[in-house]
Write a structure and sequence with these properties.
The complex is a heterodimer. Chain A is globular, with a radius of gyration of 14 Å. Chain A is mainly beta. Chain A is 5% helix and 55% strand. Chain A is built from 1 helix and 9 strands. In chain B, a hairpin with a 5-residue loop joins strand 48 and strand 49. The radius of gyration of chain B is 71 Å and the shape is elongated. Classes of the chains: A mainly beta, B mainly beta. At the A-B interface, strand 1, strand 2, strand 3 and strand 9 of A face strand 1 and strand 2 of B.
Chain lengths: 110, 998
């Protein structure tokens, strides 16, 4: 199994939010019983991480939202960092669903 | 702003595909990507090889476990066909205890008892054909004992017998006992020929029974199905021969056996009642002993043995009366008993008594039970019981009843002691029922030696509604008797419903106000009029005087000269014959007054007049001594009018109006047909009048009458007066006051008002109208006119002109087309004349024209014209146009009729030119036009033709003539746009329906 790779760009000191719809073979996945978590690190070995807030927006249609507040994005170091999105099933098993580079761009306005 | 980047897919076996967009789509490939939670990690907490049962599986929401409770609950919801039986469930076994009683009821002892005793049982079976049932005809229970025999219980007795006679015993055969066999009596036919075959007679067969058979015979009761047609119902039957019975009693030596009685005589359904009574032999009596009997022996009482016994008899008759001895003892006039029976019959006694010489009376006869003697008590009781009058009820002065009917019935009829017969009912006046017979009362002679009968009708309350005397006055016209009906007493005769008809006799009213007619009438059908000979008035319900307020007074009689008479008034007092109301003098529809001297009511000595008013207070006409006078508040109008008896229209009206312009002295103006004529005087300045009340001469000036002044000091003529100057007096002069000279002068007033006249030329035959333009200057104008030709000859006289009293007059234009002179004078009041005015005009020949159009003068509504004809010669001579009556608007050619309006095709324009007047010919009718005066009808003659005269006929119904006349225009173009010429004017005269012009 391999996750999907999807690079994202985060503007420091800006709110970040993205919506995802999860389907299985083209059919929206009912997210009832699932939970999601996402973190960003400078690299996969970095001890520090920043947690995305991941909410199930509409479980029957499989829509989730992954977001960071401007305060949080302001703490990120500009440059290339890494993130991934993990879904946890009702059986507590985890499965990384999405991941990739997170390009953090410096912001001016605080 | 975010920037997204999608890395190139380097792995061909990607488990997830990403689709960028507003929402990034993550599509998982399930074949290679295992979603978390996809495999079963455990089942209900169990891992490994798990075997679950329902105890391990908690109940979900939809699929529920089936518990007993739930099943019971669901079963409870099932609608089973039978939930319970009589409230019981489960395996129910019902008894009649649980089953309620329905229509089919249980048989309880009580009900069976009630059923049996309530008459509802018709039969009770005892097995086989034997059943007990009720025979309603016989009124008893019965049951069949075999196929042929039915036993009526209590009414007959049967015996069960065996036939050993050797032959069949038929139904109805009389049988006797011969012995017994097999516990049954054996029987054979009975016979009355000897004691041995009759003494044991026991019954009558009630069925046919073969030899050796067992069956039934009736010892007592009915045996049916017999031929009894030769017997009389109720007759006693006797045994007569072998098994046979008869109703003729057998005689000795045959033995008497009574069989029974005939119940029904019928050839097939006859029945007898069996009641066997065997006759006894003399020697069978217990007190008789007969032994060794021989002929001639008798029975002799043997006192020693106490019974009768037969012995030879020897009798001594000494001392017994023989027939001869008895006959000798009867009186000599009773010769002998001839009746061999030895009894004296009634006929025999009567025949013997008829010869007895002693006369017999009712005193010698006892009263029987039917023919009773008539005692006073019996007669009185009989009369009382039948309400017959007795002589006690008849007054002595009524000698006899002449009423052949002879009945005077109750209730309440009495004869009073004063010789009057009073008829009283208990129920007031009885309902009227016609009675064609006579009602007579015996004559009664009064002290005046006249026959007098008083008849009085009373109500139950004793109130007389009619009381009158019928009097024979002895003064009849035929020299014999005359009957008068006299109303007597204080009561009034009230004739409520019917008229009082007086035939040849006289109705006399002897007291005041006794005859009242409340709605009926008096019809005097004889030759006698109604005479009111006394001071008694004929009151016809008036409150005062004698007024006829309602009803009708018929005066149909003839007087002695066979002349019809009206109302004759012989009274010397005032007689009014009026119809009025209570206000009398103020509202007098009609009143005739014949007034003689009556100084009390009126100052006038004599009045003979008729007044009839208009119904409004104070206005009335009067005819009679003063003439017809209509009183108004400003004076009187005296009129005399004549009416057309055909339609009551006013023909002539003369009116003299008296003005109260001067107290007591009317100024009179005379009118004829509402036009002033020959006025007697005209009130104007200078008029001189003698005032008889003021006894002075007065002059009219400034709207008032003024005294002329002093008496003249002995003057004997007007001219002698100091303020009067008479000079060159001539006929007709009057005195006129000259204010400047302050004196009266004679003058003819110098009135000379020359009329101003206007006249135009007119076509020959047409009506020419002359207008007096200063007509209004005349106060009382009278027109005089005449027409002269050029030679001075009068061709139209004054009598040929028609004064329209509106300042115009007309005449027919002379038929010769030339010039004429019209002379006109206008007379004002009195004899004052005007100067003569003259004018000239031409009589014009009618020029040729093609179109002739007729219009109306002052039309106010629709009009109908029946016929218009045009003639080429004068006075409707020459050629008539149209030469043939038109049958349509375009036929016959070349004529064309047209009109501005037509009411309908039935009244089309050509109808005016159909040459038909009246009859079935129709007319042209301009109904539908609102411009009545302008509407027209015309004819196109096809070419220009000179017409000299016309005939015009309006319809003869005046309702369809609503104009003052007609105008005839001509045109040669047919445009009638101003080029037309008025050829003739025709004035309408009411009642005239044909007008000729030229």
């Amino acid at each position: 199994m391999a996750m999907a790779e999807y690079n994202i760009t985060i503007e420091a000191h800006s709110d970040y939010s993205r919506s995802f719809q999860i389907k299985v073979d083209g059919t929206p996945l009912d997210l009832s019983g699932y939970s999601f978590a996402a973190q960003i690190r400078e690299h996969h070995t970095s001890p520090d991480s920043v947690n995305f807030t991941v909410n199930i927006v509409d479980a029957p249609t499989g829509v989730i939202a992954m977001s960071l507040t401007d305060e949080v994005t302001g703490t990120l170091e500009p440059g290339t960092q890494y993130y991934d999105l993990v879904m946890t099933g009702s059986d507590s098993r985890k499965q990384r669903l999405l991941g990739g580079r997170a390009f953090v761009k410096a912001g001016i306005t605080r | 702003m975010s920037t997204y980047e999608i890395l190139p897919e380097s792995d061909a076996n990607l488990d997830i595909t990403i689709t960028d967009g507003e929402t990034i789509v993550i599509d998982i490939i399930p074949a290679s990507f295992t979603l978390p939670g996809g495999d079963v990690a455990s089942v209900n907490g169990y891992t490994g090889v798990v075997q679950l049962d329902t105890d391990d599986i908690p109940e979900g929401l939809s699929n529920l476990y089936y518990t007993d409770e739930r099943v019971d609950e669901r079963i409870g919801l099932i609608d089973y066909p039978v939930d319970s039986v009589n409230g019981l469930t489960g395996d129910v076994v019902l008894t009649t205890t649980e089953v309620a009683e329905g229509v089919n009821q249980y048989y309880t002892d009580e009900r069976v008892d009630t059923y049996l005793t309530g008459g509802e049982v018709t039969s009770i079976n005892f097995g086989g054909a034997t059943s007990l049932s009720w025979n309603s005809d016989e009124g008893t229970l019965e049951f069949p004992v075999n196929a042929e025999v039915t036993l009526q219980i209590g009414q007959e007795n049967l015996i069960h017998v065996k036939n050993l006679s050797g032959s069949t015993l038929n139904n109805g055969a009389v049988v006797r006992v011969t012995g017994a066999s097999g516990s049954k009596l054996t029987i054979d036919l009975a016979n009355n020929t000897s004691d041995s075959v009759s003494a044991d007679t026991i019954a009558v067969m009630t069925q046919s029974l073969g030899n050796n058979a067992v069956g039934y015979a009736t010892t007592e009761g009915l045996v049916r199905g017999l031929n009894t047609s030769s017997y009389t119902e109720g007759a006693v039957l006797w045994l007569d021969g072998a098994g046979v019975f008869t109703q003729s009693k057998p005689l000795t030596p045959l033995h008497l056996v009574q069989v029974g009685y005939v119940v029904r005589s019928h050839p097939t359904q006859g029945s007898i009642f069996v009641c066997i009574k065997n006759g006894w032999e003399l020697d069978e009596l217990h007190d008789v002993l007969i032994t060794g009997i021989t002929d001639g022996q008798g029975l002799v009482w043997d006192a020693g043995n106490g019974y009768w016994k037969n012995e030879t008899i020897s009798v001594d008759l000494t001392g017994y009366a023989t027939e001869a001895y008895v006959d000798a003892l009867i009186p000599t006039n009773v010769s002998a008993f001839t009746n061999d029976a030895g009894y004296a019959t009634e006929e025999y006694v009567n025949s013997q008594l008829s010869g007895i010489s002693v006369p017999a009376t009712t005193d010698d006869l006892l009263e029987g039970s039917l023919n009773l003697y008539y005692s006073d008590t019996l007669v009185g009781d009989y009369l009382t019981a039948n309400n017959y009058a007795t002589t006690d009820d008849i007054p002595t002065d009524v000698s006899a009843f002449n009423n052949d009917a002879g009945y005077i019935t109750d209730p309440g009829n009495t004869f009073t002691t004063d010789g009057q017969f009073t008829f009283v009912t208990d129920y007031g006046i009885p309902a009227w029922e016609p009675y064609n017979g006579e009602f007579k009362i015996a004559n009664y002679t009064d002290p005046d030696n006249n026959l007098l009968n008083t008849v009085r009708f009373l109500t139950s309350g004793g109130n007389a509604f009619a009381q009158y005397d019928v009097v024979d006055t002895g003064g009849g016209d035929d020299g014999s008797h005359r009957v008068e009906l006299r109303l007597t007493g204080n009561e009034s005769a009230i004739l409520t419903d019917s008229a009082l008809n007086i035939g040849s006799d006289q109705l006399s009213v002897n007291s005041a106000n006794n005859l009242n007619l409340n709605g009926g009438s008096i019809e005097l059908n004889s030759v006698n009029p109604l005479h009111l000979n006394s001071n008694t008035a004929l009151n016809l319900n008036a409150t005062e005087h004698n007024f006829v307020n309602d009803g009708t007074v018929y005066i149909n009689g003839l007087d002695s000269t066979s002349s019809y008479v009206g109302i004759q008034y012989n009274s010397t007092q005032t007689v009014y014959n009026s119809i009025t109301d209570s206000t009398e003098e103020l509202n007098i529809p009609f009143r005739i007054i014949r007034k003689h001297t009556d100084a009390i009511d009126y100052a006038d000595d004599t009045q003979i007049l008729i007044q009839f008013g208009a119904g409004e207070g104070g206005n009335f006409y009067q005819l009679g001594q003063l003439g017809g006078r209509f009183d108004r508040i400003d004076g009187h109008e005296t009129k005399l009018q004549t009416m057309n008896p055909a339609d009551n229209s006013l023909l002539n009206n003369w009116t003299v109006h008296e003005h109260y312009l001067y107290g007591g002295k009317p100024i009179r103006q005379t009118y004829y047909n509402n036009a002033g004529r020959d006025g007697l005087a005209l009130v104007q300045d200078g008029m001189l009048i003698w005032n008889t009340e003021g006894n002075e001469l007065q002059v009219y000036h400034d709207s008032t009458w003024n005294s002329v002044g002093g008496g003249g000091g002995g003057a004997s003529a007007l001219d002698d007066l100091t303020d009067v100057t008479i000079s060159a007096v001539s006929d007709g002069d009057i005195l006129r006051y000259n204010g400047i000279a302050m004196e009266w002068q004679n003058t003819n007033l110098g009135l000379s008002l020359t009329p101003l006249i206007s006249i135009e030329s007119s076509f020959v035959g047409a009506t020419n109208i002359c207008t007096i333009t200063n007509y209004g200057d005349y106060e009382d104008p009278n027109i005089w006119a005449q027409v002269k030709d050029s030679g001075g000859t009068v061709v139209i006289t004054n009598s040929q002109i028609t004064d329209k009293y509106d300042g115009t007059f007309s005449f027919t234009t002379p038929s010769i087309d030339t010039g004429y002179v019209l002379e006109v004078k206008v007379q004002d009041f009195g004899d004052l004349a005007s100067d003569t005015a003259t004018a000239t005009f031409d009589s014009l020949a009618i020029p040729a024209a093609r179109y002739y159009r007729i219009k109306f003068i002052n039309a106010t509504s629709y009009n109908m014209i029946d016929r218009v004809q045009l003639f080429t010669g004068p006075a409707q001579s020459g050629t008539l146009y149209p030469t043939t009556g038109m049958t349509s608007n375009t036929a016959p050619a070349p004529y064309v009729a047209s009109a501005e309006y037509v009411a309908s095709v039935s009244y089309d324009a050509y109808e005016a030119f159909d040459n038909i007047v009246g009859g079935t010919g129709r007319s042209w009718w301009n109904l539908g036009s609102s411009n009545y005066a302008g509407s027209w009808v015309q004819i196109d003659l096809g070419s220009s033709i000179q017409i000299a005269s016309f005939i015009l006929n309006p319809i003869t119904n005046p309702s369809y003539i609503n104009c003052d006349g007609w105008l005839i225009y001509t045109s040669n173009t047919g445009a009638f746009a101003g080029e037309e010429v008025l050829r003739a004017t025709i004035d309408r005269i009411p009642g005239i329906y044909e007008y000729t012009v030229g």
